[in-house]
């Protein structure tokens, strides 16, 4: 997943980050999470950036205090089923709980489900819920909430539902503490998908607060109530989201922090300055200005955390397969051959990343192959575009497309510029467009109102 489900057991630096203590002092070291960036194939496009993420569990932390996270842009939402944006998820995953999560080895571990069984034919998953879990309003979490979340929320609202929900035969509560998910055919990655809540949407919502209305339009989406480690306090548009410790959290002794604030700081320079001044304690991997990584590595006041890749391709060059030109697979392949992904990784990420060669993590030796990775081949790209019927005009142009990116992640903007320059070599003119994060998410992931995007 893109952000660990619970911040309280994720601040894994020796000094427990720089979460401010209740007396207001700050610890000596702050935590800056660095990414690795890559390039490879992604869904409906070519991946540009493959990023790692922290595991879900860490050693014991100092208890108490406030932690401020510097986010790269404003979250479009604060619930996890309306979009698959990482800014949204870092909030939603702390307010809500999933059935299961990941450990550092990316193995499924209990959350709301304390145990589970999988039928021999790989089609039936039975989850037994932990006793004593409650929503923030005090109501118990039951299997009916799980069934409602899957049938009425995920199946109808989550943007990634089409990739896996059609394979679900039924989702139901067999008793108040047992949730059953039945598939039409076996899907070996089901447990990983459920633990990867950003893409599955499997963060359980309270049925008693959502039933009887359209979940997508519920007022609860503005002030969510979940069962996660932190309770939602407020969302100040253009500024921050505040959460406080859930004293009734079903995981004993968690969370460690009293208060969690996600501060929206779209400008990278301002974000770094706030971090250096101690106004921000942590910058997550989507918001790290990569030109600053080497400087922070040399500064003993700060800690740069490096971890193994969790997924191979996090950021991607997305191509709209509904576009009249880009719907042609041969055109998309030609554009892939026109890219120099090593150059993009080097110049957009200042050497802080590496090109990915597959949508599969190279750490997964049993399934990884780079056999289908694209290498830059301009003659081949030109010929494929010719064969697809896109001849050069008198000015050398074959066609024009737009390329959109969102403020807050400067490397996306640099990658967009490099793609624009590289595609010029095959007669494709690219118009780079920049949007604020909520507008970008709505245009690209909700309305398909784009040509290509990073």
Helix content: 10-25%
Please give the alpha-carbon distance between the first and last residues.
19 Å
Query: What is the number of beta strands?
Result: 19
Please state the second-level CATH architecture of the domain at 315-453. Roll
Which homologous superfamily in CATH is the superfamily of the domain at 315-453? Answer: Dipeptide-binding Protein, Domain 3
Which spans of ≥5 residues are poorly predicted at pLDDT below 50? 1-60
Give the assembly state of these chains: single chain
CATH class of the domain at 315-453: Alpha Beta
CATH-derived topology of the domain at 315-453: Dipeptide-binding Protein, domain 3
Largest sheet report: 7 strands, mixed
Instruction: Provide mean pLDDT, rounded.
Output: 83
- Overall 3D shape: globular
> Whole-number radius of gyration?
22 Å
Measured by DSSP, the beta-strand proportion falls in 15-25%
The main sheet orders its strands as: 11-12-13-4-14-1-15
Structural class: alpha/beta
Q: Helical element count?
A: 12
How is this structure best summarized?
By secondary structure, the chain is of the alpha/beta class.
Describe it:
The protein is α/β, with parallel strands linked by helices and 454 residues long. The protein is 23% helix and 22% strand. Among the domains are: 97-223, Alpha-Beta Complex (Dipeptide-binding Protein, domain 1); 315-453, Roll (Dipeptide-binding Protein, domain 3). The strands form four sheets. The protein has a seven-stranded mixed sheet with strand order 11-12-13-4-14-1-15, with helices on both faces. Helix 8 (329-337) packs antiparallel against helix 10 (378-387) and helix 9 (341-348) packs antiparallel against helix 11 (410-423). The model is unreliable at 1-60 (pLDDT under 50).
